Amino acid sequence: MDLHLTDKTALVTGSTQGIGFAVATGLAREGATVILNGRDETRLADAHKRLLDLVPGADVRTVAADVTTVEGSQALTAAEPDVDILVNNVAISAFAAFPDVTDEEWTRYFDTNVLSTIRLTRHYLPGMLARKQGRMLFVSADSAVTSDADMLPYAMTKSALLTVARGIAELTKGTEVTVNSVLAGPVATEGALEFIRESAEEQGRSAEEVEAAYFDEFRPTSLLRRPATPEELASLVVYLSSPLAVSTNGAAVHAEGGTIRTIA
Ligand SMILES: NC(=O)c1ccc[n+]([C@@H]2O[C@H](COP(=O)([O-])OP(=O)(O)OC[C@H]3O[C@@H](n4cnc5c(N)ncnc54)[C@H](OP(=O)(O)O)[C@@H]3O)[C@@H](O)[C@H]2O)c1
């Protein structure tokens, strides 16, 4: 299928590895110009090289900036003032026992996972609305709906993204700009695999046992019963970035392996 992305420029935040890198690679495969982002020049240069190995001849630019700070966000938008596709992907996550989470920690989660995406969206939306074309994607998570008690600050931010995306979509009426969020389930990214390795070591179990226990204890309704690969998740984001996906707007699109038991 031709996704009509060859004349598009896409910014994917947090794209030196994991879902962000897979989305950037998928977009580059479709011929889009891709802007990689991360905090570290060396890791960015490495990601740039890996992407070109996977997609020879791809048009790739990089911007080193911490998108969770005002300064980083400003540096990014100064370097890349206009894009056709924005994928808000950066987030922090960790297990946290509710009574131990301080005010500062709640605020840090909000600032990092929500406010950072709002800043970038506020910058890029006017250009998209003026051109009446554009794609905004928010990488949310099944936790937005499952409200996991053991990682509530993270879950709260992922729920907030659904509301923010839907509300911003309301501003696109009469244009072909779309604003959608994607509810990812477990994805076997470098970050997630490292987390499983650490848990396995702490618990004296194998990584396979920890992964199986995760699905039994935390995602018993999962139909897939394994983490998706970054590429499996990215393929949906790439499709939603396409002009062909114009009729999907204001949606929270499920890609969580069937964990959330709803038909609407
Ligand atoms: N993996 C999962 O199971 C899963 C499930 C549901 C939802 N999600 C969501 O998917 C998204 C990506 O997760 P992931 O697992 O792919 O993450 P990951 O493997 O940990 O990768 C995170 C990426 O973000 C970059 N990054 C981190 N902080 C940044 C910052 N402040 N500014 C700029 N770049 C930053 C990192 O680059 P540098 O370190 O080079 O800066 C890296 O490229 C997140 O929103 C997450 O909540 C993931």
Bound molecules: NADP nicotinamide-adenine-dinucleotide phosphate
> CATH class, please?
Alpha Beta
CATH architectural designation: 3-Layer(aba) Sandwich
Structural class: alpha/beta
Order of helices and strands: EHEHEHEHEHHEHHHE
Mean pLDDT: 97
CATH superfamily: NAD(P)-binding Rossmann-like Domain
The DSSP helix count reads: 9
Total strands: 7
Helix share, percent: 40-55%
CATH topology: Rossmann fold
Q: Spatial order of the strands in the main sheet?
A: 3-2-1-4-5-6-7
Oligomer: single chain
Number of domains: 1
Q: What is the radius of gyration computed over CA atoms, rounded to a whole number of angstroms? A: 18 Å
- Low-confidence stretches are none
Give the strand content: 15-25%
**Shape field:** globular
Key structural traits:
alpha/beta; Rossmann fold; oxidoreductase; Sc_DH/Rdtase_CS; aromatic hydrocarbons catabolism; NAD(P)-bd_dom_sf; 264 residues; NAD
How is this structure best described in words?
This protein is of the alpha/beta class. The chain has one domain: Rossmann fold. About 45% of the residues lie in helices and about 15% in strands. The chain is built from 9 helices and 7 strands; from the N terminus they run βαβαβαβαβααβαααβ. The chain has a 7-stranded parallel sheet with strand order 3-2-1-4-5-6-7, sandwiched between helices. Helix 1 (about 20-30) crosses helix 9. The longest helix has 29 residues, at about 105-130. The protein is globular. The two termini are about 25 Å apart. The mean pLDDT is about 95. The chain binds NADP nicotinamide-adenine-dinucleotide phosphate. NADP nicotinamide-adenine-dinucleotide phosphate binds near residues 16, 38 and 141.
